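[job 4471] stage=fold_predict status=RUNNING
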Amino acid sequence: MPSVVSFQSSSALQGLAGGAKPGTEQLRRQNLITVLSALRRSGAMSHTGLSVETGLASATVTAVTADLERAGAIERQEQAVSGGRGRPRVMLSPRRSFAHVAAVQISSDAVHYALADYRGTLIDRFSTRRDLEGTPASLLDEVSGAVKRLMERSRLKPEDVSALSLSSKGIVDAEAGRLVWSPVFGDRPVDFAKLLDDLPQAQLALNNETLLVAHAKASRQMQDADAPDFSGLITLSLGHSIGLGIARLDGQGSLAVTAPNFGHMLNAVDDRLCRCGSRGCIEATAGFYGILRLAFQVPPNTIPARFVPLAEMEKIALSARQGTRMAQYAFRQAGLALGQGLSRVLSLYENMPVAITGPGTRFYDLLAGGMEEGLRQSLHVRLNGLPHIDIEPDEAGLVFDGHVDRALAAVDQRVMAVR
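[job 4471] inference complete, writing structure tokens
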């Protein structure tokens, strides 16, 4: 996860890597991260359980956990054995208070805030309505105040927050912590790095929202023992905006996740005006405003609505299910644009399963026919068959998991940093 500030580690954290020879340091750091990841993924474990879970030798687990205990990153608890006889069983787990992550999800009509501890456990969450007429400066003020509220509600000090993770639809400059383009602000950038002025120990992460969805969905699948071997997947988010994430294993077996600018990919030579200012984008047909515009036969070059309430979309969907032809046509055209766009992605990569998320999933029955038609227009799909498509209703949960998993992984890396 890219950062925009360096972590000012304490002597205890810096000492984790101290004394190791340069030739062994990379392996040692990897072992430390492997143990932390296993404890966060599987919960409290014994020394023996950690060795089995990670595949590390018993002596290596002993050395690693000793280092992590000295740094305060993990803690041990004694668990009485069954029957009350014998020595208590020692269980190890991440220390909750060692680090905290504040997660901020910026959507079209609301901002969602959450706080998690070092185990990845949700501590607090709340949402606020967005001021649709607001400015980048007012958004920064709003987020800053809400993060302070998160800390106050959990009685945390600013230095207790180790990571501030933000997400939005649009185009982000992750290295600089800037939102370059977004559906609400257009090309007026938002410089989120300023938020770190009040969080002296925090690292900033800024991601496209659908990248987090793809990361979390892939992570869940990789941890599911009953799931087939994972090689890659696509997530397609439907709503006011259209987002796409791609998660694949790289040559070293690590998860690589990207979020190409799918919604604003040019799809057709037509006059349908998109929120980005171009004409013929996928989103101009498949986003909520595109469906509304077509269903009511509004001229295609009409400036798109900034936000379409879900209740309004439900009315159009009900009309389509009752047989209104223009409403049916609007959803079918949306599905066609989505299918054509997906067919291009599959042609560039390979057949991967597709998980559809977002509020638009409730209209999938109206989109499915057009999506299949659009997919089958591709030679790749005709030769290799349709990808497996399923519906993932819990997009909010995936976004939160993506925030926390990536942010804590970055904290782990900083914990292991060499002084």
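[job 4471] summary: The two ends are 20 Å apart (CA to CA).
[job 4471] exit 0
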